[in-house]
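<instruction>
Derive structure tokens from the sequence
<entry> Chain with its tokenised backbone below:
===
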Amino acid sequence: MDWTDEMVEVFTQIYSSNYSARCVQKFEKKYKIEFKYSDFAGRKFNEKVDNFRSVIHKMHTESNPLGLEFV
């Protein structure tokens, strides 16, 4: 997974438990996903990164049903 500036900004807000940040809300609306507090709260850094990656992976799977990879 390549981290974009948008994803880094959103992860930073998620990591600091700022789910109401404008960038998080825009990201969720844009990609029709949801970051759940229970998936990130009280977890270690590596677990938070893994949970974030799984949400992003799910987003790509749902928005790209044929599994095509764009470069």
